[in-house]
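Throughout this review, each integer encodes one residue's backbone shape. One record appears below.

===
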Amino acid sequence: MLDVRRLRLLRELAHRGTIAAVAQAMAFTPSAVSQQLGVLEREAGVPLLERTGRRVTLTPAGLSLVGHAEVVLDRLEQAAAELARSRQGLAGAVRIGTFATAGRTMLPAALLTLAGRHPGLEPMVLEIDPAGVAGALRAGELDVALVHDYDFAPDPAHRGLATVALCTEAMYLAARGERPDAPAERGEGVDASAISACRETPWIVATDGTLCGRMTVRACAAAGFTPRTRHRIDDFPTMLALVAAGQGVALVPELALTGLPAGIILTRTPLHRRTTIACRGGAGRHPAVSAIVDALRSAVPAGLRTGPAAEPA
């Protein structure tokens, strides 16, 4: 009989690529992971791994077994959800991952709603980059998480996860106005030429490797130029403060447009950012996850569209 815990380790190896990464994520030592995978190979009766020096890759049999492991782990999550639905009331800790903008604008209202509806639940929030959410969910460090992607920078699909669309925001080009002391202004309508008009302007771009940074670079490339990056900032309030100080222009999502500094002009672009709720495959019907999804939906600001936006032409 194949051991489920060892199947989980094999699945993580398929996702993470190295035994060291699996060990770090699952709170094992690398030698313990290697030992457990060796036991799994003996249980399977066929080689699951190919070892070349320090590198380990999965054999065709190993990859096939990972596919079956995904199904097995999904069914176990469904079983846990059914058992939870049979209990009276919701109680205990539930771990929620969020990115900064959603944590500031939607999560507080959602937590208030959750406390009123299910006072026995104990939500525990972790701010996490969306790139780390899939691994944290699979490892059991999170139960549900908010993630996002952008036009020109889609978040790759992750096996073993289920997602529910939450909302779609417009992306705005933020620039300094002629009067630095004037209240922030938001223009009406969509201006498809706003980005290309800033080809000679310094840009404030998110750090390398982030979806936001990738979106900005690719959006500028689609407009026919490479942005002249002056600052790399991930925090949108800091980004907007630098725009107000005349340090460059930036692309920012609609949820970040609160408490704007004076002297900023906002132009709506054809780009969008989409926010989704992610959980482990099979866990979507768990009553605690369903309660969080409902609370988050009630916290979406009026005017934001739910569901995906069309890709730019």
Remarks:
- The mean pLDDT is 88.
- The chain has three domains: 4-84, 89-165+274-298, 168-272.
- The domain at 168-272 is CATH 3.40.190.10 (D-Maltodextrin-Binding Protein; domain 2).
- The radius of gyration is 23 Å.
